[in-house]
Amino acid sequence: MKSITIHGLDEHLDRTIRSLADREGLSMNKTIKKVLRSALGLDDQGKTTRREQFTDLFGTWTEQDFGEFQENTADFSLVDPSEWE
């Protein structure tokens, strides 16, 4: 891994980076790498499959959640023949 040093950060930039690091619970180093990756469009680097690229958008259901969903949407499977006349 390569290392770089950045000189001459103004106070506002320094405070902004520190604030972001605190909010996200990351070190300054990890925060700066994350910001650089995002700015350079490299956010998904290392995610190899299309599914992995979208995992942050997926939720998960428990068996109970799935059962409730099926119960609440069961009427959508019913067909009333009189509505098709």
Give the SSE layout.
Layout: H1 11-24, H2 28-39, H3 50-53, H4 63-73
Task: Offer a concise description of the structure.
This protein is mainly alpha-helical and 85 residues long.
Flag low-confidence runs. none
Count of domain modules: 1
Order of helices and strands: HHHH
Number of strands: 0
Distance between the termini: 71 Å
Total helical elements: 4
Query: Which percent range describes the beta-strand content?
Result: under 5%
Helix content class: 40-55%
**Class computed from helices, strands and strand pairing:** mainly alpha
Shape: elongated
Sheet with the most strands, sense and barrel status: none
Describe the structure.
Helix 1 packs across helix 2. The protein has helices at residues 11-24, 28-39, 50-53, 63-73. 48% of the residues lie in helices and 0% in strands. The protein has one domain. The N and C termini lie far apart (71 Å). The protein is an all-alpha fold. The model has no long low-confidence stretch (mean pLDDT 87). It is elongated, with a radius of gyration of 24 Å. It has four helices and no strands.
Characteristics of this structure?
single chain, 85 residues, mainly alpha, 0% strand, elongated
